[in-house]
Amino acid sequence: IDNNDKHALLDLMKDIHYADVAEIIDELNLDEATYLIKLLESKKTSDVLTELDEGIRDRILENLTAKEIADEIRELDTDDAADIISELPDERREEVISYIDDHEHAKDIVELLRYDEDTAGGLMAKELVKVNENWTVLNCIGEMRAQAENVTRVHSIYVVDDNEKLLGRLSLKDLLTASTKSAIKDVYIRKVDYVSVHETAEEVARIMAKYDLEAIPVVDETNRLVGRITIDDIVDVIRDEAERDYNMAAGISGDIEAKDSILKLTKARLPWLLIGTFGGMMAAGIISSFQEGMGDYIILLSFVPLIQATAGNVGVQSSAIVVQGLANDSIDGEIMGRLFKEFLLALVNGGSIAFLVLLISHFGFGTEYLISATIGIAIISVIIIAAIIGTFIPIFLDKKGIDPAVATGPFITTSNDIFGILVYFSIAKLILGF
Amino acid sequence: IDNNDKHALLDLMKDIHYADVAEIIDELNLDEATYLIKLLESKKTSDVLTELDEGIRDRILENLTAKEIADEIRELDTDDAADIISELPDERREEVISYIDDHEHAKDIVELLRYDEDTAGGLMAKELVKVNENWTVLNCIGEMRAQAENVTRVHSIYVVDDNEKLLGRLSLKDLLTASTKSAIKDVYIRKVDYVSVHETAEEVARIMAKYDLEAIPVVDETNRLVGRITIDDIVDVIRDEAERDYNMAAGISGDIEAKDSILKLTKARLPWLLIGTFGGMMAAGIISSFQEGMGDYIILLSFVPLIQATAGNVGVQSSAIVVQGLANDSIDGEIMGRLFKEFLLALVNGGSIAFLVLLISHFGFGTEYLISATIGIAIISVIIIAAIIGTFIPIFLDKKGIDPAVATGPFITTSNDIFGILVYFSIAKLILGF
Questions:
Q1: pLDDT for the residue A333
Q2: Which of A1, A55, A434, B118 is deepest in the core (most CB within 10 A)?
C-alpha cells in the first residue's frame, strides 16, 4: 500500500479509528510511519501519536520539525500534549512550545510539565467545565456552551468560588431539571471527592475505582481547582500497574513488551536470573557440605528437586496472596494473624503432600521407612517455612514503605530454595544421624 | 459502637460514602451487619450491598425477608440489581421479583438475568437515554429530562429509529450547542461503537480501553438497542482479569482473597502444589536412575538446584511475556519468529550465566575443568530449552482456544524442572561418559 497512491491511502485511513491507525503504524518501518503521519491531517494524527508505542513515537517525533510537532500538539488535550512534550529533549521542548500559538493552551501545558508523571498532577488535564457559585442556571448553560468547546467530554461541572476554590459539583441531570432562574448556589451538591496534585497515580486509581467515579477534580495546596482526571487515564494506570506486578512476579523488571529489543529484554530479565544463579550456587554449597558424611543415604539427594519445587511454589502462592491483598487494601498488614493462618494452611497442604510423598517414595522408590518418614517430615517443615517467609517478607517490605511486589517471583523462590534445602538436610541429619 | 444507640449510629453513617460503609460491614459479624443494613435506609444500603464481599452479602441476604430485599433492589440500577438477584436461590428469586412494584424495573431485571455474567449482556444496564431520530432537539431535551430521572449518570445519548435500532449517538456538547429547533436526524453522529449482547466481558473491556470509551451501547441480534455498559463496570472487569492472571501465575486458581477460609484456600492452592509434587517425584526418578553409575561425579548432584532454579525462572519469564502479549494483542501469535527471538535471548542470558557458573564452580567448589565445563554447557542448553517451552506452550494453548494463563506458574516451572534435570544429566553422561 505504502508506495505512492496518496489519495487511495487517505481515503482508506479516513474511516479508521485513530487507535487502529496507531496499531497499523506500530507495524510499519520508520520511514513509512513518518510518511503516513505527515500525510494525514493533524486532527487525526495527534490522537494517533498518543496511542503509539513510546519507542516508535520518539523516533517519529525525531523526524518531525518543531513546527510540525506543535501542529499535532495543538489538537490535543493538555494532559496528552504534556505527555508527548515531556518525552522530547529539553531544547526541542521549548522550541515546540514556542510554536503553539494558543497561549492559554501553551501555558497550561507548561504548568502540567511541572508535575511528576506518577502523580495526580501528571495525570490531570486542564480542560474542565467550571462555574461560579454566584451564577444562575441560565448563565451557567451559556458559559458551559462556551467552555465545552474545549472539552472533549463533559463529565461533571465543578462549582468554584471567586477565588477558584473548589466548592462542589453540579450534575448535568440537575442542570437539565432545575429551573433556569435558580442560582447555582442553591442547586449544587456540596460534597465532592477530589485529590491533591501530589497524590500518587495508584492512590487516585484506588479512590476512583472504589467510589466508581468517572472524573475527579484535582486541587492544589490552597484548595484551588487546577485540573481533573478522567477514568480513561485511570484505566491505563490500572493496566500498567497490573502489568508491572505481573512482570515483577515473573522476574521481569520495568516496562517490557514482547517486541522490545534483545538488549532491553536482557536488561529486564538477566538480573533476576542471576539471583537464581547465586541461590543455586549456595544450594550447591549446602548440598556438598552434607554430601560427604551421607554414605548410604545418598538417595536423599534425589529428592532435592521435590523439596525445592514445593518450597518455591508454596512461597510464591503465599506472597502472591499477600501482595494482592495489600494492593487492594483487603489486608490491613496485621502480621501475626496472617502468619498464623498461613501456618495452618501449610499444615493442611503439607500434611496431604507429605502423605503422598511418603507413599510414592516408599512404594515407588523402595526407600526405607525411616528415610521416607524423613522426607515426609522435611516436606511439612519446608512448606511451613516457605509459607511463613512468603507471607512475612511482603508485609515487612510494605511496612518499610517498599513496594511489596519486588518480593515476589525469583526473590521469594530463591530464598525458599536455600532455606528449604538447608531445612531438608538438617532434619535428615537429625533423624538419620549421618 | 454497635450496642444500642440507634440515633448516634445513624448520624455517624449519614455522611459516610457507601463504599466506606461496605468496608466497615465487611469487618463486622453477621448479626451486627444485618442490624446495620436494616437500620439504614435502603437508598444507602442498596449501594452498600453492591460493594460488599460476595460471601458476606449472601449471608446478610439470607437474614432478610424477600420484601426487604425487594426494597433494596428497587433503589438499584438494573445491572446491580440483577447481579444481586442472580446470587439468590431460585425460589427466593421469584419471590423477591414479585415484590418489586415497578413492573418496568422488574421486567428489565428479569431480562438481564438471562445473560451469562461474563458477557456484554451480563454487564449491561437497561438505564440509558435514547432519543428517536425524528425528534427535534427541543423534544429531545424534554424527553431526556424525563428519562434522566432513572439514569444515575448520563454518558451518551443514543439515537434510534422507530424500530429501536441503534443509529448513532448525540453528544451532550452538540445538544447544548445546537439550535433547539434542529431535527435530531441532522445533528447526530452516525458513527458509534457498540457491542453485541453475546460479546465476552474481556473483549468489551479491550474495546472500551482501546478506544477510550466511557460507555458503550449494547445491541441484540437484530441490532436493537438493549442496554449500555459503563466504564466503571469495566474497571472491575480489568481488575478481576489482572488478578486472575496474577493468581494463575502464582499457582492459585479461582477468585481467592487473603481472608477466605482455609478450606477454600486449600482448594485453590493444593492442586497446583500437587503438580509440583509429581514433577518432583519424576525428577527424583530421573536422578536416581543416573545416580548409580555416577561414581566420582557425584558432585554433579549438588548443582541440581541451580539447574532447576534457572530452568524455572527462565520458563516463567518467557511465558509471562507471551501471556501478557497475547492478552493485550501485541503479539499476533506468530510462533516461529517469537521462538527464534527467545532462542537468541536465551543464548545471551545463558552465556553470561554459564560463564559465571563456570568461574564459581571451578574456583569456589574446586571442580575439575571438565565437570565445570559440563555444568556450563548444560546450563546454556537448559536455558534455551526452558525459554522455548515457556514460549511455545502459551502460544500453542492460545491457538487451541485455551486461556494461555493456565500455562504459567507451577505448570511451566514443573515441566521445565523435569526437562532441565533430564537434559543436565544426559549432557553430563555424554561428556563425562559415566
A1: 55
A2: A434
